[in-house]
Amino acid sequence: MGLTGVGNARELGGYPAGDGRVVKHGVFLRTASLAGATDKDKERLKDDYQLSVVIDLRMTREKESAPDPEIPGVRNIHLGIIDEVAVAEKQKNLSAEDLEGLDMNNKVDRLILAIKAGIVSDQMYIEWLSSATGKAGYAQMFKEMIDLPEGKALLFHCTQGKDRTGCAAMLILSALGVDEDTILKDYMLTNTYNADLISSERQMLIDQGYEGQELDRYMKAMDEVDIQYMVNALEWMKNNYGSVKGYITKELGLTEAQIEQLQTRYLHNMTAHPAKEATCTEPGNIDYWTCDCGKYFSDVQGENEIGKDDVVIQAKGHTSVKDPAVAPTHTNTGLTEGSHCSVCGAIIKIQEVVQKLAKDPQPMTVKVSKKTVKASKLKKKNR
Asked: Which pLDDT value is given to residue 365?
């Protein structure tokens, strides 16, 4: 997304949703905390993405310690996903021994506390999705999607942009018809986008003496994701609701008609147009795709929008070759000079027929008899 002060920032556009459809680009944006957004980041979100709504999925304490920036014309909505009362109860159950030596101003110590309290585990997504708080938050998120003005974007985020945000992305993509493998790949992209951060955090923990399973457990609580966390959530929804879509309709209250409405609005119906080579007289085209909305694309993911004229390959025009004139004879007709296309063979200048040459007249032969000559001589003599 080109944001310099916001981590794990990407969008959901371009994912295939079956039947030749893909998720529209520039509509659903997912990030980590927006607290560090630069002025240029905010301008890009507002002007380039036409951002309309920001949904903050964090807990109250997280939101207050690093509030979202105010962007003119953008609504900020807080939809907490974690049951903060339940979290407080879990923390109360910790013993003095569990709390010994922990500094709550230290990020690692706070994560250690969350792990000891059972707040962070490979079952936590299921806890959020099954809690009244989580269901209310994600249900309102879908309502915001339905009400989103045409041509505008919606951004959702938490602190690290991976867990609560990852569940939100999974629900959105599932509602739009994206398959499970693609959803898991999107989830795991966090490890790509956070690669440098993960490397530095891992080294920091190693320097503090953490290793093995303990090291891995803390990394998953920080900025790394583990596919098993999401697999557990998907399996739970399939076992209890038949599918993610079943969970969305039964627990989040969306109707089939609303899901169809979301797909109609936020998916491109892509039609393929195979490449056609241009001829001398007929234009061709590159491989391209069109959507019912009237847009043209150079890729099936709908990522690279192009103009209608950009798909056209202009006709090459004829390559003219002369056909030499043929002189007529007394026995054969001739031809004028002409030309044709050396590529397609089309006649450019027609050769016209030249008639045969006329035959020469025969010389006259006069026969004179001897008697006539003699008579003539006699007459001359008598004169």
From this structure: 60
For the 10-265 domain, the top CATH level (class) is alpha beta
| pLDDT for the residue 383 | 46
Mean pLDDT of 211-227: 82
Chain centroid to CA 278: 27
User: What is the DSSP code string of 101-170?
Assistant: T--TTSHHHHHHHHHHTTSSSTTHHHHHHHSHHHHHHHHHHHHHHHHPPTT-EEEEE-SSSSSHHHHHHH
pLDDT at 361: 64
Assigned token pair, 28 = 């659903």
Element (H, E) at 16: none
Is the distance from CB of 46 to CB of 24 less than 8 angstroms? no
Helix axes 164-175, 256-266, angle to 10 degrees: 90
Tell me the average pLDDT across 140-165.
95
Average pLDDT over residues 27-31: 97
Element (H, E) at 365: none
Round to whole Å and give the CA distance between 287 and 58.
Answer: 44
- Segments making up each domain of the chain, as ranges: 10-265, 274-313, 320-354
What distance in Å separates the CA atoms of residue 127 and residue 303, rounded to the nearest whole number?
35
Token pair belonging to 260: 């169809």
Compute the mean pLDDT over every residue in the chain, rounded to the nearest whole number: 88
- CA 128, chain centre distance (Å): 30
Report strand pairing: 21-23 vs 334-335.
Answer: unpaired
The identity of residue 138, as a single letter, is Y
Judge if pTM exceeds 0.85.
Answer: no
Q: What sign does the dihedral 146-34-221-211 (CA atoms) show?
A: positive
CA separation for the pair 327, 261 (Å, rounded): 77
Instruction: Please choose, from the candidates 164, 314, 311, the residue with its C-alpha nearest in 3D space to the C-alpha of residue 225.
Output: 164
The CA dihedral of 308, 313, 317, 321, to the nearest 10 degrees, is: 180
Rg (CA), the chain: 42
**What pLDDT score was predicted for residue 279?**
92
Contact yes or no for 24/266 (Cβ under 8 A): yes
Instruction: Classify the C-alpha dihedral 47-51-57-58 as positive or negative.
Output: positive
